[in-house]
Design goal:
homodimer, mainly alpha, Tetracycline Repressor, domain 2, 11 helices, elongated, DNA-binding, Transcriptional regulator, tetr family (chains A, B), DNA binding (chains A, B)
Chain lengths: 206, 206
DNA sequence: ATAATATATGACACACTGTCACATGTCAAT
DNA sequence: ATTGACATGTGACAGTGTGTCATATATTAT
């Protein structure tokens, strides 16, 4: 997390700095992006930067997680919309992310995040689900999910299903980015994953 | 790939260099590892390094992929052993990787690979399956898989199943590493994933 | 007005990368 | 054995970056 000093800054200065950072992380992936470029664009001194942030990563993950927050909020609404059908809601959420990747700048930023991803980047993405599973929020969302669809209603398995879904969703974003799939192609691939997961891949007499 | 010059080196010199590299990549993840350290340990000059490799990544992925090759070879045997039961074979392969993570040095090396992974690292891992799906090898392995177990025998879906399985396997290795799970715990988690995938998570009357 | 605290600065030491002109080794042809 | 062509080895160097620190300036509280 950025230091308090950063949050004490005037809104204008803060925005300006974040914009410069976003520019740099759009230009280059985390490990290639340079603080030097960010402070040059933002017009602040090197020393100041270190008053605001621990280091480059600190700023980066602050930005990235902020971007992903929107998705988390969105998901609750989707569950309601689809009468608690987990998979249907997940499919629409994935569609939302794929659309976000259409904006050219946004695309490059996330592409940089996905292609040169670290564990922390993956965590940032999959934490969309954690929110729903770990804390108080769970009760709310847990209720939204219609268990009638599911084979198992055990909490433990439900949590595991979330983990699987998020791994597959993350993988789908990478697949799209790497192979340069269109949104439709990526969506088709994701739907196939979800369909196989729903039905199961083995015959039921085993 | 390393340059020809590297392969022209005497075996002794090559081994020595690879060992120095492995030491460095065990000490630090890719982005923190330094060529400077590698050449100091190996006792070669900076210029020589660039005669052998394009850059740090070139050497790194040569090492990593070599390590993973063994797993690819192993998998064919496992399919035969389990009478073509894809999931059973996959479970034993995952077990093999988890055991590899028991050796302390190996563990640190792979930990560095997993935690600060890039897309290319994930590719290296999941390419274990690509081998079986893309080229001539497919026919061999495709035959080994007992389709009687599966709901769908369409090639396209089989390929997709491989992709899902590899995404979940990769995710499992990260989960183990990050949460510091024991081999048994990790295996249990992976088996649950496989079991859910086999049976499907939705009731069949939908 | 003064002290205390918070913020800003840029020079600096240190580390690393990739390159290049030059040195040395190898080996086939004469 | 000598030559020349080609392969390999070298380390100084320019360029770029990071994180720190002594010092300067601003802000706030008393």
């Amino acid at each position: 997390m950025p230091k308090q000093t950063f949050f004490n800054l005037s809104e204008q200065k803060r925005k300006n700095l974040l914009e410069s950072a976003e520019m740099e992380f759009t230009r280059a992936p985390l490990f290639e992006a340079s603080i030097a470029n960010i402070i040059k664009t933002a017009g602040i001194s090197r020393g100041s930067f270190y008053q605001y942030f621990e280091d480059k990563d600190d700023l980066y993950f602050y930005l990235l997680e902020d971007k992903l927050k929107k998705g988390k909020i969105y998901f609750s609404g989707l569950l309601a919309k689809h009468q608690g059908d987990l998979i249907e809601a997940v499919i629409e959420l994935q569609n939302y992310f794929l659309l976000a990747l259409s904006d050219e700048e946004e695309k490059q930023f996330l592409k940089n995040a996905l292609l040169y991803t670290t564990h922390r980047v993956e965590s940032s993405f999959t934490s969309i689900w954690d929110t729903y599973l770990d804390n108080q929020e769970f009760k709310k969302v847990g209720k939204l999910i219609n268990r009638d669809y599911l084979n198992s209603t055990a909490e433990k398995e439900l949590l595991h299903i979330f983990k699987m879904v998020s791994a597959l969703a993350f993988n789908n974003l990478i697949e799209k980015t790497v192979k340069g799939l269109s949104d439709d192609e990526a969506m088709e691939s994701f739907k196939l994953s979800m369909s196989l997961l729903k039905q199961g891949i083995y015959k039921q007499n085993n």
